[in-house]
């Protein structure tokens, strides 16, 4: 690679015969500059391999142009796809993203919030840890006056923008599908009720079971952290019942995979003897044998909407607080593990 | 959750009957405090649910206690496992981690470096983007005097600490294994040579092929970005040869998955007609049918060593630069896709 002099805003201005200030405004997507000029500036900047000095630019404008993310973990297709989509939208607008993971720990989430506030982020987009009950730290973000947007795992009491799918309806859709396959004894391996999304899935399961006059038994509804290991353990627990289920709806794909492993080990035919449904559309669900029926949570749309909501809040910080509750409809992807009629 | 008064360092000091200063030192792992006292302080802090104020503590000590990570992407089992292990070691030492992804883009990596320097990180642990050839931005980190540690995708010319596996030997191990299975025409779908690890894998492939007197043909060695799509395309290219290979060693698991899809679509028996080996031990390799033979890159050990190397550098910043090159031996995991002798 050659060691040419670094391209400056002035170089771009010279090529286009406009002022350096106009170039700077164009690069920061200033509304006073026409779209045509912005486009031209971006093209020349790209041709000359212009590298903006982020720090200098931030200090000049009193903004960091950083957006902080907090996710339970990054090694889930759902969260990494949401992150990807947030980045795509916000990078184009000149924001950089820094990611932190809570690993489902409340303490770590608090420390992540402190870290992000310390780094002067312009906003925080978060999905809450399983452990989180106390909302003090999220209130702290609000009190700093920077936008807070929650997705997937949110909390009504915080009164902030939220983007997610309709978890209650998703459970209805799943139970409906299993009933159509002829299942009569449907169990649910759910998450913990104190997390809103899992509570909604449990409520949806209970109401759908009642609606179809199916047995609603305490033993058929279990809560867990939904790891692979939890899926294994809870599946064994269900198999040990006097009357085991003929279908199991698991609230997360990794736990569904654990359940499937146990069913294979016990030589139980899936879906003939027990039908299985997961949640989240992790890529492996399409690859295993039998492939696992699951729910598409629209991670791409959730990511995009979270980013756009942030941009909206930054644009009109004093806008009267009308909460954007984007509740998307989930999509059931029927695969071998529950399809008895093929 | 109750709204009790927040626990302070003074509360911990009162319980243990020591000075608040001693508590603070203990919480920051100061060498002047005994391990016994540190242990007692940590226990009481936990019991009282003490939440340290990160910002105040950082300002007091002129340190951010942040470590920045740069990875090509987070949605790979290898990178997320490295991140996990780095966090486990550094969180215990009071460091918080912020993660950025380059998405294999040189420009994004530069902007990530600027972002992390802007947030005053105490060090950067990075794995380079596929696109990166120009090292100017990494030199910038070095010139700031903060530790830079590279893992997996590193670069000799930077003269910094590096942790990775022995890629050259890994290729030898794979070719050796395929020869033992009776394969006589072994192709390699590799990464780009300008990235050190992929260059080492290619060199290892070439030398091992020569050692076993097998045909070393231009058509049998192809380079790509190693996405699923690349794996599909390059596999089709190999199948279209006048003399197709009887084994394919793919330098990354996702590309190996793409190759496997094409082989299945073409009704080619794996491993009987063509044996297949991937690289990276992504979880899906054990789950697909046939399961894919692959290489364990020791992500856990790489993460731990990267974190420990950072701690070492922080402890002795003026230590004469003896580069820690932790080159770990990779491990071949033989599965159905290459095991002809079962």
From TrEMBL, chains A, B:
Entries under Pfam families matching the protein: LacI, Peripla_BP_3
CDD domains assigned to the protein according to its UniProt record, in alphabetical order: HTH_LacI (cd01392), PBP1_LacI_sugar_binding-like (cd06267)
Protein name (record): LacI family DNA-binding transcriptional regulator
Residue stretches making up the HTH lacI-type domain: 7-61
Database matches in InterPro entries: HTH_LacI (IPR000843), LacI/GalR-like_sensor (IPR046335), Lambda_DNA-bd_dom_sf (IPR010982), Peripla_BP_I (IPR028082)
GO molecular function: DNA-binding transcription factor activity; transcription cis-regulatory region binding
Organism, scientific name: Aestuariibaculum suncheonense
Keywords: DNA-binding, Transcription, Transcription regulation
Source organism, top-level taxon: Bacteria
């Amino acid at each position: 690679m050659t060691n040419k002099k670094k391209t400056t805003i002035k170089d771009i201005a010279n090529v286009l015969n406009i002022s350096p200030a106009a170039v700077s405004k164009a690069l920061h997507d200033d509304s006073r500059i026409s779209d045509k000029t912005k486009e031209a500036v971006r093209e020349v900047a790209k041709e000359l391999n212009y590298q903006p000095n982020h720090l200098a630019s931030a200090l000049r404008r009193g903004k960091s142009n950083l957006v902080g993310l907090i996710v339970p973990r990054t090694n889930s297709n759902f969260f990494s796809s949401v992150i990807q989509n947030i980045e795509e939208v916000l990078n184009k607008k000149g924001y950089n993203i820094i990611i932190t993971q809570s690993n489902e720990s409340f303490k770590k989430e608090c420390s992540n919030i402190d870290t992000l506030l310390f780094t002067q982020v312009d906003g925080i987009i978060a999905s809450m840890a399983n452990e989180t009950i106390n909302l003090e730290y999220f209130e702290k973000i609000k009190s700093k006056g920077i936008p807070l947007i929650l997705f997937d795992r949110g909390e009504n009491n915080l009164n902030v923008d939220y983007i997610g799918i309709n978890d209650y309806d998703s459970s209805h859709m799943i139970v409906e599908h299993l009933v159509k396959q002829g299942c009569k004894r449907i169990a649910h391996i759910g998450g913990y009720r104190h997390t809103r999304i899992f509570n909604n899935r449990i409520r949806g399961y209970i109401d759908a079971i009642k609606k179809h006059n199916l047995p609603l038994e305490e033993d058929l509804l279990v809560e867990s952290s939904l790891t692979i290991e939890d899926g294994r353990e809870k599946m064994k627990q269900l198999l040990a019942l006097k009357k085991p289920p003929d279908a199991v709806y698991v609230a997360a794909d990794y736990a569904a995979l654990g359940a499937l492993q146990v069913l294979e080990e016990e030589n139980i035919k899936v879906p003939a003897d027990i039908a299985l449904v997961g949640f989240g559309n992790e890529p492996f669900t399409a690859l295993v044998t039998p492939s696992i029926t699951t729910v598409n949570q629209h991670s791409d749309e959730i990511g995009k909407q979270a980013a756009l909501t942030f941009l909206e809040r930054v644009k009109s910080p004093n806008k009267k607080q009308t909460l954007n509750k984007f509740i998307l409809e989930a999509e059931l992807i029927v695969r071998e593990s529950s399809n008895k009629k093929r």
